[in-house]
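Deviations from the work plan: none for this task. Representative record:
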Amino acid sequence: MTGVVGRSVEAITGALRSVFAAERIAASDGFLQRRDPRASLCAVAGLALAVMITRTLAVTLLLGAVTVALARLSKVPLRRLLARSAVVPLTSAFIVLPQAVLLPGDVLVEAFGIAVTDAGVSYVVLFTLRVGTGVALLSLIVVTTRFSSVIAAMKALRVPVALVWVIAVTYRYLFLFFDELQRLVLARNSRTAGRSTVRGGWRDVKRIAGTFLLRTIDRGERVGRGMRARGGARPPSPYDRTRTVDGCDYALVAFAAATVIGSWVIRWGL
Amino acid sequence: MHIPDGFLDPLIAGLFWVASGVAIGIAVRRARDKLGDERTPLLGVVAAGIFAAQMLNWPIPGGTSAHFVGGAFAGILLGPSLGVLAMTAVVTIQALVFGDGGIIALGGNLFAMAVVDVLVGYAIFRALRGVHETGAAFVAGWGAITVSALAVGLGVGLSSAFAYELGLTVSIMVVGHTVLGLIEGAITAAVYGFVANARPDLVLGRFDDDSLSPEVGL
């Protein structure tokens, strides 16, 4: 596969690989995998909120340690978690790096008239760690909870059912369309010889995108006709997975709630 | 464009959640009125198509590539309420399946990419389509992404977690996306032109009920 358009296949393959890897971890028997998805979602969101509230390095490090402990308990390989979570905090560090010299404070190093301050360095480190912990928490939910369970949790958490169904159907057809798009790009590439210009590449990708979207709409219409033929009233698929919320689920949510309150108290006091 | 957790203050993130929740709630109600409970999920098929189309690399000079965001296109193709719902599904799956953005920041990402992008794109297209349809699609794609970037710049700039001033975050986001938005506009116009040529029945406003497909009523 060559060319910018051809690299779309690599992007699709990369996305699929990460989803399949996450599904494999989600199928293992770990702490978060055994939890009710409502409890995991609420707890991880609570921990992320606690990270957003804090401005203290020690609290951020503690919440980072909690994230690592949850990952270990859930049999998530730390290398994989780090690989998933490293890019965003590193980019964020690059964005806020000028603050190391912009923020006033005690001078740590001075060269060429530029002074690096302690307040600036503290801010950059804290900001990067907060973003890193937030991203790691999201990655944790992504790799330990199957999306079908997340959909069931959304329904149980009273997200409007029409929206839940739209999300469920989007997820259901996504992989089919990834496959279809991959085949379209592959077919176009197999008919193309020589180097493609930017203009030629645009012409190709416009045809691929247009044809693909038309096929998508056509499939939607066929699914609609199929539903009508069957009477139309039956929802596309059941996602009602009732589970008993056990003591561990309550404990996890209570722990997350306590973390939010603790983070709040440390920042603003009682 | 995805905002990760850590950039927004909890208060700003909460306001984004409220604004997105209200807009998506209205969109859900209108979609149910329009399509009914049975056919609303079919919107997910089109949403999945837009999501997959985002994976295509569009070549730009210099050997690099750009991606389609698709909010304005969703608004043009589906109308405001169905477009908001489709992009809500896309942004939610991006966060909870692919780990793009953040959990607390999901409200902000929904507001920028599923609400503002779609509604601004739709409004611009609706206002300009009488002048030139493909041109209107271009301006819709460009304008929508720029206004979305303004929303992100405002949210991040107003957050104390991010040390840069509001003026700077807004300027960088708006100026950057005014330029990058030209690519989104060009992609929106190219895809719109292709789809409109092949299926003129899908073009918004050519039928009284503005439905996606008059034949099946989706």
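Confidence is low (pLDDT under 50) at residues 206-218 of chain B.
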